Amino acid sequence: MKNNHRIVDHPVLGSLPEKDSITFTFDGKEYSGLAGDTIASALLANGVRTLRVHEASGKPRGIYCNIGHCFECRVTVNSTSGVRACLTEIKDGMVIESGKPEAQPFASKNVQDFPRTYAEFEKKQKVKGDK
């Protein structure tokens, strides 16, 4: 697939400078990007919008903040899961897979035991310290 979604002549920033082409795979398909692209920008340039599915709902997820704050763009890179596509530069031959569902960080059967306010948290900490 070609980079037909890439902006090559921006009205304010001007023309995109010449860069080396890089080949990588995403979910078994070969794509090309440019040196300096992040995974997210290279995939967007190739028309790919879905990077993973939500752990609980199974709904598609893509790029949300594009600055590394939200973790919505997690993918698996060369067998390492949880890599943020918006912060990771593509490398030639990189193997990228859609983000696999990770464990939910606060999934617990005893949610009622969690403090709901900071005051409750402090109170529990004091009780622990008294033991």
Descriptive overview:
It is a single chain. The chain is of the alpha+beta class. The chain folds into 2 domains: 21-97, Roll (Ubiquitin-like (UB roll)), CATH 3.10.20.440; 104-131, no CATH class. 15% of the residues lie in helices and 25% in strands. The strands form 3 sheets. It has a 5-stranded mixed β-sheet with strand order 4-3-9-7-8, with helices on one face. The protein has a two-stranded antiparallel sheet with strand order 1-2. A two-stranded antiparallel ribbon has the order 5-6. InterPro entries: 2Fe-2S-bd_N, 2Fe-2S_ferredoxin-like_sf, 2Fe-2S_ferredoxin-type.
Topology diagram in text:
Blueprint: E1 9-10, E2 14-15, E3 21-26, E4 29-34, H1 39-45, E5 52-53, E6 60-61, E7 74-77, E8 80-84, E9 95-98, H2 118-130
Parallel strand pairs: 3-9
Antiparallel strand pairs: 1-2, 3-4, 5-6, 7-8, 7-9
Pfam families: Fer2_4
Protein name: (2Fe-2S)-binding protein
InterPro entries: 2Fe-2S-bd_N (IPR042204), 2Fe-2S_ferredoxin-like_sf (IPR036010), 2Fe-2S_ferredoxin-type (IPR001041)
